[in-house]
Amino acid sequence: MGTRPAEVVRDGASESPVRTGAVDAQLGDYFDRAEAQAAAISPEYIRLWRGLRASTAGGKRLRPALVLAAYRGFGGTDDAAAAARIGAAFELLHTALVIHDDVIDRDFRRRGVPNIAGVYRDSAQDQGLAAPAAEHRGQSAAIIAGDLALSGAFRLVAAAELPAPLRLRLLELLDEAVFASAGGELLDIEFPTMSPPPALRDVLQMSLLKTAVYSFELPLRAGALLAGAGEPAADLLGGVGRLMGTAYQLVDDLLGTFGDEQVTGKSAAGDLAEAKYTPLLAYASNCPEWPRIRALLAGAPGTREVALIRRLLESCGARAYVEDLAESYAARARDRLAAAGLPAGLRTDLVDLLEQAVRRSR
Amino acid sequence: MGTRPAEVVRDGASESPVRTGAVDAQLGDYFDRAEAQAAAISPEYIRLWRGLRASTAGGKRLRPALVLAAYRGFGGTDDAAAAARIGAAFELLHTALVIHDDVIDRDFRRRGVPNIAGVYRDSAQDQGLAAPAAEHRGQSAAIIAGDLALSGAFRLVAAAELPAPLRLRLLELLDEAVFASAGGELLDIEFPTMSPPPALRDVLQMSLLKTAVYSFELPLRAGALLAGAGEPAADLLGGVGRLMGTAYQLVDDLLGTFGDEQVTGKSAAGDLAEAKYTPLLAYASNCPEWPRIRALLAGAPGTREVALIRRLLESCGARAYVEDLAESYAARARDRLAAAGLPAGLRTDLVDLLEQAVRRSR
Fold first, then answer.
1. What pLDDT shows up at residue A14?
2. InterPro entries from the xrefs (chains A, B) (predicted)?
């Protein structure tokens, strides 16, 4: 590969060979244009757009990297516009879903800094609003910003210079990904109060829907279609994406419970404080430790209780089980990649991206 | 006109000659398909889709009626698919914006019954969640449902059987309408704490952005373009739509403050309890009564205080001023319609729709 320019995907210490600089350029154009239009409305609106731009900065550009990997791997050569634009659209989709997910999870920080809800909450407090009103103001701004990003995703795909049937197919896939994510998000919020509690199988389905479809299946399918590889190849990569995405989300669940706050940039209590029903809890619900874990979770656990729950999740085997499960999904993805007769460069790139997804620490 | 079938637009006692039954059929197909797909995921997801379907029911179908009026008025004759589908898309956009607006306004009822946030809040309370957690659950479900409706709007336009350039133009207009609405919504939430308070001019701009663009300008423009009337005709109708929409929103502000709760289906305290900065307050801010009104608004006004604020808004002339302002926007819209040399049937239909918009009681 030779030199590795700054715009390659970075993830902790590892790097991907897939350059996403053209995607950043597309996003930059998109935000420049929106800010110019917002300037005709009000300074407040410029500020919201700048907040939205900041929400897309500093990310791993995982979804665009997957689009580009599939596109180039299947021989796509149009380095300029369309694939980068589709990658940018999916990054906006990711931003929209993350912003709304943070409202739903009552998170006011992401990657170690205030997210858009946090920024607006803090400035409302500076204006003299009491804490609950300021939080609501922050969440309201975030709802609006997420709607803009979601529309932007559709806009970027709709305006891509592509044959009309392909553009339509990509818009369909985008809508299907929103459909899946919304279904997963809904289950995610309903699981904690479901009776009987959901089975591990249901929790894995939720993860698949909420994250894997839009983060892995959609970009890989889209990249294959953009390169003209056809629907069967897109289906193949889509299936690999589901496996990769499930492995990715399981690692995310492990980081959300056992990760180092300094590294993940997320609150340490994280998933446990929100009593999110992850596969860790689904496994633990069949352990003798469960009544104790459940009681601790129900009592708005603080730092000490969270540490105790972590130890109980380790002693009951939940941590090891989920680590093994993540590895088994990754292995299935690797096996399918190896067996599929894909172009060698594509296989290598996807295995690299898979390793990043499961070896990451944030 | 002869018989008036059940699917005409109804608004209080008056009726429009524009039939929107084909729009309801498009929405019905859309929800049937989504529910079938949700069934593959979980019963909870079917329930969310049924809630979303219910959120679109019982509305005035104002936006589809405007699309169809402009489309048929300019000679569009394809009674079947495209115009009705675009009307259905704009109805979904309306649903999305209303659902998210209700979250932002902390409203749990609409049209006299629980809205989607209210339905989910109530069932979370039945499951034993405390009030704040149950409200958050309701709002979370509403955020998800609004995202689905917003995606659905783009999906329906993207899949309309239209020449590709026209479809792209409509997708652009849809995105521009979301851009305007989001800008208006942001100003709406920021106005109450702005210092100095916003001028009447700014409040009118906010109304224009938040409501008039997507509710009037967008449908009229789209209908003209669908009929092949060209961009100048679309611009003309778009301008009329801005005037109509501003008149409409001013009437909405009057109903939100002085309306009969039994008729509007909205909470009586409404805008005053939320301290929304409407043109009524912008006018009143220059009256001797203002310090008293402001103090009452700041103190979380109950029924008695709301009644007092209403009397003060009447005695200071704010009510009469806003009523006159609504009438003057309606008159400008009528004048422009009369002067524009539009087809006679279109002019009549739009004047009818305008009268409904300003004479309504809910």
1. 38
2. Isoprenoid_synthase_dom_sf, Polyprenyl_synt, Polyprenyl_synt_CS
CATH of B9-359, one of 3.40.50.720, 3.30.70.660, 1.10.600.10, 3.30.530.20: 1.10.600.10
Q: Is the pLDDT of residue B260 over 80?
A: no
What residue spans define the domains of chain A?
18-58+82-160, 164-362
**Backbone Cα Rg of chain B:** 21
Q: Which residue of A has its CA nearest to B191?
A: A44
Does the beta-carbon distance from A104 to B140 stay under 8 Å?
A: yes
Average pLDDT of B155-177?
Answer: 95
CB contact under 8 A, A42 and B144: no
pLDDT tier, A299 (very low <50, low <70, confident <90, very high otherwise): confident
Output the pLDDT for position A60: 84
d(CA A209, CA A181): 5
Query: What are the phi and psi torsion angles at B14 (to 5°)?
Result: -90, 160
Other beta carbons less than 10 A from residue A266's beta carbon = 20
A residues 9-38 lying closer than 8 A (beta carbon) to B? 34, 37-38
Cis peptide before B64 (omega within 30 of 0): no
Best to test chain B binding among A52, A106, A116, A144 (most B CBs inside 10 Å) = A144
A287 contact B CB<8A: no
Tell me if the domain spanning A164-362 has CATH number 1.10.600.10: yes
ipTM attached to this prediction: 0.92
Residue B144 with chain A: CB contacts under 8 Å: 100, 104, 182, 185-186
- B95: helix, coil or strand? helix
Contact A215, A289 (CB under 8 A): no
Which pLDDT tens digit goes with each residue over A113-138?
999 999 999 999 999 999 999 999 99
The residue in chain A having the minimum alpha-carbon distance to the alpha carbon of residue B182 is A144
Strand locations in chain B (E) = 8-11, 14-19, 109-110, 113-114
Is B160 strand, coil or helix? coil
